Amino acid sequence: MTFPPVPRTAPAERAVLPTVGVGLLSLGSLLVLLLHVLPPSNQIDPMTRTISQYALGTNGWMFDVGVLALAAGSMAILAGLVRGGVVRAVSGTSVFLTLWSASLTVLVVFEKYDFAAGQHTGASGMIHRMASLVAFLSLPAGALLATRGAVRRNPSWRAPAAFTRWTAIVSWACVSLLIYAVAQSFFTDVSWWRLFPLGAMERLIAGAEVVAVFALGHWARRAATSPAGTDPAGVDPGGADSTGVAGDPVRDAGGGAALVQ
What is the count of structural domains for the chain? Predict the structure, then answer.
């Protein structure tokens, strides 16, 4: 029994989402970096104050727009990864990247404690803190899961998968500093936010994780523009073989279909 050919979209069309995603990531990163050099936010000490401190100033709108751009760009890249066959729409990577983007949005909606004004309690600040933790843990987990079995499914993904894996490992290494700081605070008299310069540690983690999202964006573009969107068995993520004829869903169910994470 044969099936009609599955229509394929042009590589340029498939590359729109990851390209938009990378553009939004670039915009968001630029706005946050500008906060470090433009007055009056340039008066904030980046070693001791967190990035969210910028949201409390007169040019806090740049922080809000920048972080929302990072969230939207990450979702566009996730959509590109799904469309390119790198990950499934329902997968660990999709869940963790969605958590990352949702957490970034929560950071904008709920502001951090303004310690300079004597604020140390309140629901908004606690939600902001928890969202930061979820974001820091979700992104490297999602990026690492995306690399699982990727080269087996498509050998042309070897380079972007390896780059993404290393960025995820570096992100985990940076997050481990925070985990260690919190863990040791239960056994010593040193507060977790005093063990390492808090602002520097947060910027290190955030920078490493944004690089990991850029790596995923590059991979999504690679998958979209690759002339061979198939796995080594010759079956593409949409179910069509290299001749353009869809695979038999019954026959392939035993192992002939491409496993897309």
Answer: 1
Task: Please list, residue by residue across 21-57, b when 16 or more beta carbons sit within 10 angstroms of its beta carbon and e when fewer do.
Answer: bbebbbbbbebbeebeeeeebeebebeebbbbbbbbb
pTM as predicted = 0.82
Rounded alpha-carbon distances, angstroms, from residue 121 to 98, 107, 111, 153: 28, 16, 12, 50
Instruction: Say if 162 falls within a structural domain.
Output: yes
Query: Average pLDDT for residues 157-168, to the nearest whole number?
Result: 96
Q: In the prediction, which pLDDT does 118 show?
A: 63
For residue 142, CA distances in Å to 45, 93, 145 come to: 31, 4, 5
Mean pLDDT, rounded, of the chain: 84
Residue 210 within any structural domain of the chain: yes
Report phi then psi at 25, rounded to 5: -60, -40
> Which domain does 135 fall in, by range?
11-145+153-226
Separation between Cα atoms, residue 115 and residue 119, nearest integer Å = 5
Query: What SS3 class is residue 240?
Result: strand
Q: What are phi and psi of 246, to 5 degrees?
A: -65, 145
User: What percentage of the chain carries pLDDT values higher than 70?
Assistant: 79
Task: Tell me the average pLDDT across 129-142.
Answer: 96
Rg of the chain over all Cα atoms, to the nearest angstrom = 21
Instruction: State the average pLDDT over residues 62-84.
Output: 97
